Amino acid sequence: MTSSPPSPSASRPARPGPASSRTTPPPGAPAPAPSGEGAAVMLASLAGFDGCFGCGSEAESGLRIRHTGVEDGVVTCEFTVRREHQGAPGLCHGGVLATAMDEALGGAAWLLGNRYVTGRLETDYLAPVPVGSDVHVRAWCTGLDGRKAYLEGEARVGGPDGPVAVRAAGVFIEVPQEHFVPES
Ligand SMILES: CCCCC/C=C\C/C=C\C/C=C\C/C=C\CCCC(=O)SCCNC(=O)CCNC(=O)[C@H](O)C(C)(C)COP(=O)(O)OP(=O)(O)OC[C@H]1O[C@@H](n2cnc3c(N)ncnc32)[C@H](O)[C@@H]1OP(=O)(O)O
Prior knowledge:
It is a single chain. This protein is an alpha+beta fold. It has one domain (36-176): Thiol Ester Dehydrase, Chain A (Roll), CATH 3.10.129. The protein has two helices and six strands; from the N terminus they run αββαββββ. The protein has helices at residues 37-46, 94-110; strands at residues 66-71, 74-80, 115-125, 134-145, 148-157, 164-175. It has a six-stranded antiparallel sheet, with helices on one face. β5 (148-157) and β6 (164-175) form a beta hairpin. The structure holds ligand 3IX. Ligand 3IX is lined by residues 22, 42, 46, 54-55, 67, 69-70, 75, 102-103, 106-107, 110, 117-120, 146-148, 171, 173, 175. InterPro entries: HotDog_dom_sf, THEM4/THEM5_acyl-CoA_thioest, Thioestr_dom.
């Protein structure tokens, strides 16, 4: 995966190096124009729900990912790697990092104004992430095809301009509200 998030001046990012054909939008699939309406729909849908393993304040064992903003369709969020996130000694577990990418790509999908679940998530791990690191994640949509939204993202260590540790690409599938199970 070698694509970059769109710059503020570029409404449609180039995507020169997809990781797999299954996370590449089909030719001609439109990339969404950034809109503030999707964020409003998303936040209304999720109002009062704090149980998300990625970002929920009530998920005691969750990652406590902090959503920090949306600009031109790019979602940004961050979390701090704790000791309980270790895989190999002193380093963040790859599944934890995949969770963070899922969270960010999912957020960028929900920004489109519909509800989505992860269908496929691909991750490339480029550098180890030590315990204590602040991980800065951003994600954006590369195309829409029916119920399928194609997303990409990257995680950087130490700051938003730090070295890239993870790149991800995914396909999220639009579902109705009824897909979800009311909390018991
Ligand atoms: C201050 C600033 C604030 C900013 C705020 C920003 C963010 C706010 C915070 C949060 C954002 C909110 C949420 C996002 C957060 C986290 C996201 C976490 C997401 C998850 O953690 S979610 C759990 C894991 N996930 C599942 O639990 C899915 C299990 N699964 C199923 O529920 C079904 O499997 C389903 C529904 C996926 C499909 O089932 P179905 O019967 O409805 O539809 P069907 O099978 O016909 O597929 C329809 C079309 O999707 C294609 N398709 C299907 N699967 C595919 C695959 N794997 N790869 C590629 N394409 C696939 C088909 O090929 C077909 O394509 P086509 O239309 O072209 O034929």
